[in-house]
Amino acid sequence: MAERTLPTAEDARRTAAEAWIWGYPLLADYRNLYAQAVDPTDPGSAGGFGSFRHDIGPVAPDGADIAHSTAWLDLRAEPWVLSVPATDRYHVLAVHDLDTVHAGFVGSRATGREAGHHLVAGPGWTGPVPDGVSGVLHTATHLAGVLGRTHVAGPDDVPGLRAVQEGYRLRPLSAFTDTAAPHPAEEPVWPVWREEETGTVEFFTVLDFLLRFFPVLAADRDLRTRLAALGVDGGGEFEPAALSPELRAALEAGVADGRTRLAEATAGTTRPEGLGGTRAELGADPLRRAIGAHEDLYGLPEVEVWQRDPAADGPPDGARHAYTLRFAPGQLPPARFLWSASLYGLPGRRFTENAIGRSAIGDRTPGILYDDDGGLTVYVAHRRPADAKRAANWLPAPAGPFAVTLRLYGPDPSVLDGRWPLPRLTRDDGADG
After folding, report:
1. What's the CA dihedral at 381, 382, 387, 391 to 10 degrees?
2. CB of 262 within 8 A of CB of 290?
3. Which of 12, 92, 104, 114 has the fewest CB atoms inside 10 Å of its own CB, making it the most exposed?
4. Can you give the residue ranges of the DUF1254 domain (predicted)?
5. Are β-strands 91-96 and 102-107 bridged in parallel, bridged antiparallel, or unpaired?
6. Which of 316, 405, 320, 317 is nearest to 361 (CA)?
7. Is 318 within 8 Å of 402 (Cβ atoms)?
8. What span, in angstroms and rounded, lies between the C-alpha atoms of 172 and 176?
9. CB of 325 within 8 A of CB of 306?
10. Residue 143 in contact with residue 234, Cβ under 8 Å?
11. Are 161 and 56 in contact (CB under 8 A)?
């Protein structure tokens, strides 16, 4: 084998910076894969590859909750079959590649409410599609994840939710067709996940391991060639200790450059939009994918769920003001499946405790009262409004900064093209009674 020609320090630094941005989503994905599919002692373990973990979590009585189901697939030996039950309940099971880009979707919008079997096939698979399979989702990587989201309309709905989740099933293709299983793929030595290494040259050790599961795509060929010149080629033999001091320093500087670039790109971002989707939807911009992995890991495309923070009269603060979110007649959120307005405390964007346990309000919220003209007014305040109608439509705010996010599942085209007017969060200090 010919000896590899090493790049100059300047070229190595540039390649390292680009590769850190490009590889950031892979390591963000591996963080979860390791915890859920590799490490059986992790509290979030799904029990290995090919099994679902269903996280229901605390269900608020507001009817706006989405429960998650997580699974991981090793597609090296053969495809897997993802089966779903018939249900009128909103659900989506998104299959994503190792770099978090979506390979395809199964669910209410993409495949309908009927029961079905869907083949998930890895790179290069060209076998026959068996009878009874509704469609094929082709991944670009040999390892893939499945993240399901299923609607639950409050605590009383949990048994119905569980029944649907238990209908989500994964089987190797050979088990589905009742044929002999192929020889299993070799079990790799999985690198132990260490968060602190993502900001050091050890980043490339993990990346080198992951590249064995990621065939080179045309859009990445130049960068992958330059990475291979540094020894990061998917062979699993990259060793930072073997680098010359000059080359190691160049890679460390490149990592720092990449981290700075991502930090600058995400600075001041409150709710990034349009960062989740397929390769066709996202294009070939690695920075865009890195921002998506940093700000909204596994975010869905807007055709599935559209989300925005309504403009407000100044930074919303429950300690200082009350607010209204008014949907005019004929302008209720046009969503095919459901919509909700969720409130988060800042800066962490987390649900906050309140007297009625309501973290969101929407079309599934029991007891909300519509206006006489057919519109809807949501009252956002820290204190419970004295007026009965305002209390019925009360979305409790913390005594401090907060944000409201409006989500439409299955948005109408008028939402996607901007024709539907997003309501404003308007100051209304009479709302807190």
Report:
1. 80
2. yes
3. 114
4. 64-172
5. antiparallel
6. 405
7. yes
8. 6
9. no
10. no
11. yes
Query: Which two structure tokens, joined as six digits, stand for 48?
Result: 């290995």
- Of 378, 403, 363, the C-alpha closest to 323 is 378
Paired residues of 297 in beta bridges: none
DSSP code for 89: S
Amino acid at 137: L
User: Tokens in use for 106?
Assistant: 């199964």
The 10s digit of each residue's pLDDT in 351-368 is 888 888 898 999 988 899
The encoded tokens of residue 388 equal 């009965």
Is 422 in a helix, a strand, or coil?
coil
| Cα–Cα distance measured from residue 430 to residue 433, given in angstroms and rounded to the nearest whole number | 6
Q: Could you read off the pLDDT of 56-103 as tens digits, one per residue?
A: 766 665 556 889 999 999 999 999 999 999 999 999 999 999 999 999
DSSP H stretches of helix in 203-330: 203-210, 221-229, 245-266, 279-282, 286-295
Q: For residue 314, give the nearest of 403, 397, 384 by alpha carbon.
A: 403
Q: CA 399, CA 318: separation in Å to the nearest integer? A: 5
Please name the residue that has the structure tokens 């603060």. Answer: 317
C-alpha distance from residue 375 to each of 257, 329, 333, 340, 422 (Å) = 51, 4, 11, 15, 14
**Using CA atoms, how far apart are residues 433 and 424, in angstroms rounded to an integer?**
21
**Tokens standing for 319?**
């300690």
Distance CA 74, CA 70 (A): 14
Q: What's the whole-model pTM score?
A: 0.92
Q: Which helix (H) or strand (E) holds 394?
A: strand 394-396
For 363-415, write each residue's pLDDT tens digit: 988 899 999 999 999 999 999 999 999 999 999 999 999 999 999 999 999 99
What is the pairing mode between strands 394-396 and 376-381?
parallel
What single-letter DSSP state applies at residue 240? G
Q: What is the CA radius of gyration of the chain?
A: 24
Judge contact between 136 and 128, C-beta under 8 A.
no
Instruction: Map tokens 């790799």 to a residue.
Output: 188
Q: From the DSSP assignment, how many helices (H) and strands (E) are in the chain?
A: 10, 17
